């Protein structure tokens, strides 16, 4: 039997004859985007999970939570939060108290706390610099 190469069979069958390639008229959309290569940018959560420190030691893997009190502010023998110093009297008149406070405020508004002679003494002791000297000092 004579050995014939595959190329000779293909040439004889007209395999190298020019053919027209037909393409479909509709676009073929992919169901999902292709998987990104490992060197592309990761989303933040994926990168954080990939780069987080891993538990490799058995003492880390089997670690129990520390024994602590869930509400440390409530302990045995703590002082009272609110202490009533004294009970109010039944003869307290709210309206009279408000009137007294308002009268005190009005009397305080009429009180003048300024002393003209003292203010002039203070203003005389303040030394204002020469404007040229002040300008040079501010420019530095």
Report a brief summary of the structure:
This protein is an all-alpha fold and about 140 residues long. It contains six helices and no strands.
Rg, Å, rounded = 47 Å
Count of distinct strands: 0
Our count of helices gives 6
Weakly predicted, low-confidence segments: none
* Helix-strand makeup class: mainly alpha
Helix-strand pattern? HHHHHH
- Share of helical residues: 25-40%
> Roughly what is the average pLDDT, rounded to an integer?
76
Sheet bearing the most strands, described?
none
Morphology call = extended
- Cα distance, first to last residue? 108 Å
Beta percentage is: under 5%
Relevant terms:
140 residues; mainly alpha; extended
Task: Describe the protein's architecture and organization.
The chain is mainly alpha-helical. It contains 6 helices and no strands. The protein has helices at residues 6-12, 44-51, 58-61, 94-110, 116-125, 131-139. The protein is extended. The model has no long low-confidence stretch (mean pLDDT 76).
SSE layout and pairings?
Layout: H1 6-12, H2 44-51, H3 58-61, H4 94-110, H5 116-125, H6 131-139
């Amino acid at each position: 039997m004579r050995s014939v190469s595959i190329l000779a069979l293909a040439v004889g069958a007209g395999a190298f004859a020019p053919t027209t390639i037909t393409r479909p008229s509709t676009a073929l959309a992919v169901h999902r985007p292709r998987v990104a290569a490992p060197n592309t940018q990761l989303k933040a959560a994926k990168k954080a999970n990939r780069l987080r420190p891993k538990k490799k030691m058995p003492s880390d893997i089997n670690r129990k939570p520390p024994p602590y009190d869930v509400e440390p502010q409530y302990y045995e023998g703590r002082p009272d939060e609110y202490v009533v110093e004294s009970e109010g009297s039944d003869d307290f008149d709210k309206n009279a108290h408000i009137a007294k406070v308002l009268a005190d405020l009005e009397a305080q508004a009429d009180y003048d706390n300024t002393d003209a002679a003292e203010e002039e003494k203070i203003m005389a002791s303040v030394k204002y610099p020469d404007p040229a000297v002040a300008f040079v000092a501010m420019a530095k």
